[in-house]
Design goal:
The complex is a heterodimer of chains A (288) and B (363). Chain A has 288 residues and is an alpha/beta fold. Chain A contains 11 helices and 8 strands. Classes of the chains: A alpha/beta (288), B alpha/beta (363). Chains A and B meet through loops of A and helix 5 of B.
């Protein structure tokens, strides 16, 4: 990978000015592609319930805002989310496989995936075994993903590369190729648990990997960007990067996701600013 | 030594030692240009016969300093503790009463208003969380910093000219400038003193029936917008800004449109006064571009429209009402800026919300 070229290109894609109706469309698209996430040790059934209510109707005062794509929780909270979202278009995603490190025994990791899918999760977010990947045991990392895909069955498998731990764009591209070849339906940037998370160049790097896979094999792989995405502006910069690299085919909840917790309220604030012409205060939007 | 003696005769001040230091390195042109007799004295220390003429500034060995271009100040915004230009890149010319161009001030945009409110909001909690005593210390420090820049403020106000010679004041422009600066500094001191006192004066312990105490406590309303008046661009601004800060509010101030420069210079004093970044933000520009977005901003708790032009007031009030923003004006008495009637604990109160707490007292 040409790191300088990649960073320049990513930077140039973030200078676009997006206004009025385009901005409104971008904000609504960002909401409909969002995985509304809570992954805290302090999560409770009550918090997941309110998160699901927010997922279905992000802004109760504005019916124009679509529901988000999915709610992302820890496995033991999947039954709560499934119950709250039954019969709605919002999917339930669960992290599994010893999230966020992925260093539990393989059997335990696979069992966690089985458990989450049995509980009704539509999507499973696992982590790449960075310990194996970084020490050159690619086949081990590959086999683990393949095994996870097998036990996940019908559920979509998203593989978190944790780009902040991979060290270079070459490694990110290599990991993207490995995860998709092993059967991952989506590749995802980060767990959100380390400081270094999704960035514009890494998003571009992964988008290019996905584009090249599609060109060579005809197979379409999804992209999920997560970690550190907090403002509406960041969200539409990512949309531009994906649109310019992968095209409009990817800009649907089926192939593109933004994983976030605090992003949604900023998007709602910007949307309300567009509609009313007045700058909003954060307190006017519901928590989680 | 002959050189030093002659130099002193030419009107230089200071001790011989300091004069020697200065002249050896870079002779000030005031000395060199003052009289031809200086030239000979310089030659006595300069062995080169080539530089006999002090008018020949191109001679390499001549110790004549080249004519110096004065460095003019770029007046910028004060936003989140920094001095940025407007995101829009715009400026507008500021003139004295005589029509002389003084400087180009920043013409801020509504996005700068948004950034200023954001900065003020993020600074508010920790500012209000400081002890009242500490806020008082910081306000006192502002006065100290302004005191050491007195001359600069006076010069700046004088440059505005007699357009400001309000008929209410029976003093001339030069004296008015001095009095305005002095009163401004004293006003900071006055409000610094109120920081740890207004709470006991405006709050109360309520006489209630039953086994409870009832306390009423003033709390800051949050972010306050202040529009500075044209007729007293420095004193008027401080008279409305300082009382908002006392209780722990943070402020987005819009400087006088005609005379924004004194407010921006005050920002330099604020930046060196331990005032945390974002507690005071000062924008300059066109009032009809800045007041509406500030008034309509959902995150502004109170708005002081003292300096708002009459034709903008109704619009600003309507926008403020939409988001339940309190609107405050200085009364006529409070607008007699130089008088003591322009300062009052009731102004502090007008930027506060009251909270009443019931507390069981036991048996």
């Amino acid at each position: 990978m040409d790191a300088t070229g990649l960073e320049e290109r990513a930077a140039s894609l973030t200078t676009r000015s997006i206004k009025t109706s385009s901005k409104r469309a971008a904000l609504e698209l960002a909401v409909s592609c969002m995985d509304l996430t809570t992954l805290e040790g302090a999560d409770t059934a009550g918090k997941v319930h309110s998160l699901c209510a927010k997922a279905l109707r992000p802004d109760p005062t504005n019916p124009e805002i679509p529901p988000v794509a999915a709610v992302c929780v820890y496995p033991t909270l999947v039954p709560t989310a499934v119950e709250a979202l039954e019969g709605t278009p919002v999917k339930v995603a669960s992290v599994a496989g010893s999230f966020p490190a992925g260093l539990g025994p393989l059997e335990a990791r696979l069992e966690e995936i089985r458990w989450a899918t049995a509980a009704g999760a539509d999507e499973i977010d696992i982590v790449l075994n960075r310990s194996a990947f970084l020490s050159g045991h690619y086949s081990l990392a590959f086999d683990e993903i393949a095994a996870s895909k097998e036990v996940a069955g019908e559920a979509h498998l998203k593989v978190i590369l944790e780009v902040g731990e991979l060290g270079s764009y070459d490694q990110i591209r290599k990991a993207s190729m490995l995860a998709t070849a092993a059967g991952g339906d989506f590749i995802k940037t980060s767990t959100g648990k380390i400081a270094s998370a999704a960035s514009f160049p890494t998003a571009l790097c992964m988008s290019e990997a996905i584009r090249d896979i599609a060109e060579r094999t005809g197979r379409q792989v999804g992209l999920k960007l997560a970690g550190g995405i907090r403002t509406a502006k960041q969200a539409w910069h990512y949309l531009v990067i994906v649109a310019e690299t992968l095209g409009a085919d990817w800009l649907t909840p089926r192939w593109f996701r933004l994983g976030a917790s605090s992003l949604l309220n900023d998007v709602l604030m910007q949307h309300a600013k567009l509609s009313t012409g007045r700058y909003q205060r954060p307190e006017n939007f519901t928590v989680v | 030594m002959a050189f030093f003696r002659r130099r002193k005769r030419a009107g230089a001040t200071g001790s011989d030692t300091s004069a020697a230091d200065t002249t050896a390195a870079n002779p000030p042109d005031a000395i060199l240009a003052s009289s031809p007799s200086n030239t000979s004295s310089i030659h006595s220390v300069d062995p080169s016969p080539a530089s006999t003429s002090n008018t020949d500034s191109t001679t390499a060995l001549a110790p004549v300093a080249p004519p110096r271009t004065a460095i003019l100040k770029t007046y910028k915004l004060y936003l989140g503790g920094k001095f940025p230009r407007s995101e829009s890149g715009r400026t507008y010319p500021v003139h004295s009463a005589q029509g002389e161009l003084l400087a180009h001030a920043v013409r801020a945009s509504r996005k700068d208003v948004r950034e200023a409110v954001k900065a003020a909001r993020s600074a508010q909690q920790s500012w209000a969380g400081r002890t009242a005593y500490n806020r008082g210390q910081i306000l006192y420090r502002i006065a100290e910093m302004m005191e050491s820049r007195r001359e600069e403020f006076v010069r700046e106000l004088r440059a505005l000219g007699d357009v400001r010679a309000n008929q209410a004041y029976s003093v001339d422009v030069a004296e008015l400038a001095v009095r305005e600066v002095e009163t401004t500094i004293d006003r900071w001191i006055w409000y610094a003193g109120w920081c740890d006192k207004f709470n006991s004066v405006t709050g109360s312990s309520n006489p209630v029936a039953g086994s409870y105490f009832g306390f009423t406590i003033p709390e800051p309303t949050g972010v306050v917008g202040v529009v500075a008046p044209d007729e007293a661009p420095l004193l008027g601004l401080v008279s409305r800004l300082a009382p908002a800060l006392v209780s722990g509010n943070t402020v987005v101030a819009i400087a006088s449109h005609a005379h924004p420069l004194p407010a921006i210079i005050m920002a330099e004093a604020l930046a060196t006064s331990d005032v945390p970044a974002g507690v005071v933000n000062i924008l300059s520009g066109l009032h009809d571009e800045l007041i509406p977005p500030l008034a309509g901003h959902g995150d502004v708790g109170a708005l002081d429209l003292t300096g708002c032009e009459p034709d903008l007031r109704a619009q600003a009030q309507t926008l403020a009402a939409e988001t339940v923003t309190r609107v405050v004006y200085a009364s006529a008495q409070e607008q007699n800026w130089l008088a003591n009637t322009a300062q009052s604990p009731y102004i502090i109160e007008s930027f506060c919300e009251y909270k009443t707490v019931w507390h069981p007292k036991g048996a």
